[in-house]
Amino acid sequence: MSDATHAAPSGRLIVPALAGTYAGLHDFAETLLRVVAGLALVTHGAGKIVDPFGAAGMVEGLGFYPGAFWSFLLSCTEFFGGILIAIGFLTRPASLAATFVLLVTVWFHWVTMSQGYSGAEKSILWAAVFFFFLIRGGNRHSVDARLGRVF
User: Fold this and answer.
1) Contact 64, 70 (CB under 8 A)
2) Residue 44 structural domain
């Protein structure tokens, strides 16, 4: 899509003079969100990747068996998936895995821990961000785009 399709037509903006600014910053804003989201996921997974089987008991407590397998997958999804999302390589599959992880944390906080919306709010927000990149992909400032191939 061109930048023009992302901004409201000039006549519809309250301040039409901002149309060029919005169009010019569209890709930058999307790239910034992808990089920040990916790096946040890496940061969250950094502790897990040093002990990838350390969460086995926790994931089994959520009903995911065998715990060692799911703990390893969780660690890799957060750490390596975050790197992939940040650089925009295999953006959609990595975002699918991240979205799944975040939806499980929504369930954990809302239902298992009985914290309701207030406990699950951050997970809901992060799940929505990763769902956006699952659908949208990495944009033109990504490794996927540089390779000329997208998933």
Assistant:
1) yes
2) 37-145
Reported pTM: 0.89
**Predicted confidence (pLDDT) per residue in 5-28, tens digit:** 454 555 689 999 999 999 999 999
In a domain, 52, yes or no: yes
pLDDT tens-digit series, residues 66-94: 999 999 999 999 999 999 999 999 999 99
Token pair in block for residue 151: 């998933």
Domain membership flag for residue 9: no
Residue 29 falls inside a structural domain:
no
Residue 22: inside a domain: no
DSSP per-residue letters across 87-126: HTSSHHHHHHHHHHHHHHHHHIIIIIS--HHHHHHHHHHH
